[in-house]
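Pasting two entries for a bug report.
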Amino acid sequence: FTGNIISECEKTEETLLTSWYPAVTSVFSQKNITKGLKGDRLKSFYSCVSALLSIQLRDLLMRSITSYVKAFQDHRTLPRIEMELVLSGKRIEFSPTCAEVTDMIVSVVQEMNKLLREVPTIQSWISGTSNQFVPVTLNKDFIK
């Protein structure tokens, strides 16, 4: 269950980095975009672009996590999670246990929150260094 969801999230991240992000960077790598901007103004321009990218990526991440959580709030859309009843001595137990299922469900949110951490800033992408990344952090209260 969790492997499939995380795999889909990783595929989406890969699509973003191989199609959406290059399209965005191509807009900002045109020479006429930064024409006349130098020094602090150019730095401010790229900071604004990084802020916009950060907002877009954070919004995507928040919407994805919210959709995942909503799937568990409506009994009509609950994902199918298979559990077995196991006879253990004189006790009948669930396998995996309810705690393990809960941990598994919560771990998906934690894994989703790790996505999109290595999206380079436009400036580092253009310069070819890719050592600065767009900040995509979610409020800790949102993740709870």
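Entry 2 (this is the one that rendered wrong in the viewer):
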Amino acid sequence: MPTIDHGPHIVPPPPGPVTLVCCNTTKGPLSIAVHRAWAPIGADNFINMVESHFFSSEVPLFRALKGFLVQFGISGDPDVQQEYERRMRRGKGFLEDDPHWLPLGPPGREINGSYRFQKGYMAYAGGGKNSRGTQLIMAFDRNMYLGGGSPWEVPW
């Protein structure tokens, strides 16, 4: 089993197994390590998206900000998007937020030179409590502002 080095964490992440999802993109392969113990609701939803072939249509990357993040998760096929929302979410609306394991608020942004959100962390984009849908963000670099204070930004 491969060893995954996340660099210095601001706090130790919850221990648990890792599921590796391998993706083909127009720019080459992308491997995503899914840590269910970090955010079980979000991780399970992502794995369901993969297993239901949500990402088999062209899923564009957008909101790509150098040194910050990239956002994605809207199916290139509107029927796939609607079917996922209907079938996989069973009409419940948005995902509930996972419990935060990172320190919240401005005092928790940086501790002893470690930032809250590490390079490569993924979380759901959202706009309020329990607002997560299919859109995801991936950090291009460690960041002190992501993952703290916004209830939907729990990395997995």
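Dev reply: Rendering is fixed now. As a check, the viewer should reflect this: Residues 13 and 100 are 10 Å apart (CA to CA).
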